[in-house]
Amino acid sequence: MNGDLLAPLMFVVVFILIFTGFPVAFALGGTALLFAVIGVSAGFFDWALMYALPERIFGIMSNFVLLAIPFFIFMGTVLEKSRLAEDLLLTIGKLFGPVRGGLAMAEAGCSGPGARVVGNEGAGIRAELRDAAHASVGVPIRAHAESLNAGVAAAILCYELSHAPLQRPPPPA
Fold first, then answer.
1. CA–CA distances in Å: residue 98 to residues 93, 101, 149, 171
2. Is the four-CA dihedral 114, 102, 73, 77 of positive or negative sign?
3. CA-CA distance, 120 to 84, in Å (whole number)?
4. Which of 33, 77, 110, 112 is the most buried (most CB within 10 A)?
5. pLDDT tens digits for range 36-63
6. SS3 111
7. What pLDDT does residue 47 have?
């Protein structure tokens, strides 16, 4: 067997297993282990490469961006199974339905015209945007944390805006 055929064959096997009803995790993991054994027995790579697998897994597990993916999936599943998302959408629809763009305003937590800008974790917001803003809000963090994830900061901002009394921003000068 040619080593160049292993990758396309692995791709086909994964799809066959998924479409025959195997759970995705078992299809991916089982295919990887099966083709690792095939690759070692055919002499395409050595078992010593498998010793690096725990280091790679730990490296992936310590990547916070990749860790956010299963947490968002879990959060979506909880919201779906508890029917909380449906109730929230129906309530917001009843409350803001008659207002043009009301649902978008409710989702963004806006109380009037304006923009909410969240900067990235390293550089923050560009100076031009910061200078153009009539107000600025910061999220206090403890000394041992370098910064908050931008998504977490945006969620805190939307939460606080949704619980704040409705206030109109001052007219531009």
1. 8, 9, 35, 25
2. positive
3. 30
4. 110
5. 889 888 888 888 887 887 787 777 777 7
6. coil
7. 83
CB atoms within 10 A of CB 71: 9
pLDDT-derived band at 1 (thresholds 50, 70, 90) equals low
Amino acid making up residue 35:
F
For the residues of 133-169, what is the DSSP string, one character each?
Answer: -S--------TT-----HHHHHHHHHHHHHHSPP-PP
Neighbour count for residue 104 (Cβ, 10 Å): 11
Tokens encoding 32:
């990887």
Rounded distance, CA 131 to CA 126, Å?
Answer: 9
Helix (H, G, I), strand (E, B) or coil at 120: strand
> Residue 169 in contact with residue 133, Cβ under 8 Å?
no
Joined together, the tokens standing for residue 137 give 């809000």
Which three-class secondary structure state does DSSP give residue 30?
Answer: helix
Instruction: Name every residue whose Cβ is closer than 8 Å to that of residue 90 and which is 6 or more positions away in sequence.
Output: none
